[in-house]
Amino acid sequence: LKMEGLVAEPVKVEKDNSSWLISGKQNIKKLKKLVGVSNYRARKGVDFSLNGLYWGKITKTNKPNISSFINQNEIGRKKVMQYNVPIENSLLFPILRGKDVSRWQANPEYVAIIPYTSNGKCIATDILKSKFINTYKFFYKTDDKILDLIEKRGIYQKHLINAKVPSHGLYNIGPYTYSPYKVVWKALASGMISTVISTIETKELGNKLIIPDHNLLMIPFKNEQEAHFLCAVLNSEIINEFVTSYISWFFSSHILENINIPDFDKNNKKHIKISKLSIDAHKAGELNPKEQKELN
Asked: What is this structure's pTM?
């Protein structure tokens, strides 16, 4: 049995409801130096609330821009029948789950039907019917069970119906979802595990943007260098130590509110070097010990 003396201090003394840091007496002084604010704001990925219907595997068909979609009906808590239907490729995207993410890596297993425009707006039902007839038929004409299921979802009853979003709509989705680069990390993890996602080459869909699901936290970026800068910072040992000292298993979007992470400066040589370390790590799948030490 090993005993260790720990100290608990509020992250921000001025806040009555502050999170607390728990660490050794000397170490907590080091961690407190990181306390501050960041201009980076995180949000959750897309919430389907019916993964077993929206997520699936696809195969090519002999029709242009159409894939054969088989939903993975055993995924998720709600029981769903399995269907094999044609779906327009423009509404199919690789979907990224927490278990598909490792540090510096992202390997989506499934694709998802996302009936939205690239500016994050849900496609109206009449437009879906006229321009995406296969997807329309799947949601509204396959059988009576599908429409009943999607309209009984919690996100539909609590959010979408009042906002007059069509029955096939999703939650936590907007223009940010379609940003060319995103830093993502697992909401549930034993340590900070972050990676940068963008597009991926698929044999069925060609080059497609990866979309994170709601069990991932994400920050959208237009600039690749800046995305890799933040990813590298989050994957450093000191940030991991800071975060795990007050969050044991759920890394929500508020963690950046407590850490003094500077904005990326393209004229700062250290920022450029940090960014490059992340880019190299994504190519190699990891940082070697020398590179990790340099990052830290």
From this structure: 0.91
* Interaxial angle between packed helices 144-151 and 133-140, expressed in degrees from 0 to 180 and rounded to the nearest 10: 80
**Alpha-carbon span 237 to 233, nearest angstrom:** 9
Other C-beta atoms lying within 10 Å of the C-beta of residue 191: 14
Q: Is the pLDDT of residue 248 over 50?
A: no
Confidence check: pLDDT of 249 > 50: no
Residues β-bridged to residue 194: 185
What's the half-sphere exposure (Cβ side, CA atoms, 13 Å) at 154? 5
| Nearby residues of 18 by Cβ (< 8 Å), 6 or more positions away | 10, 11, 12
Q: Token pair for residue 193?
A: 């595990």
Mean pLDDT for the chain? 90
Residue 20 has pLDDT above 70, yes or no: no
Strands (E), 61-215: 66-71, 84-88, 92-96, 101-102, 105-106, 110-113, 181-186, 194-197, 199-202, 206-209, 211-212
Six-digit token string for 90: 């423009």
Calpha distance 104→88 (Å, rounded): 31
> Which range has the worst mean pLDDT, 43-47, 97-101, 251-255?
251-255
pLDDT band at 24 (very low <50, low <70, confident <90, very high): confident
Q: Which of 101, 163, 104, 169 is nearest to 135 (CA)?
A: 169
Alpha carbons 188 and 210: distance in angstroms, whole number:
20
Residue 4, CA distances (Å) to 19, 22, 194, 223 in order: 21, 12, 30, 44
CA distance 271 to 266: 7
205 touches 92 (CB < 8 A): yes
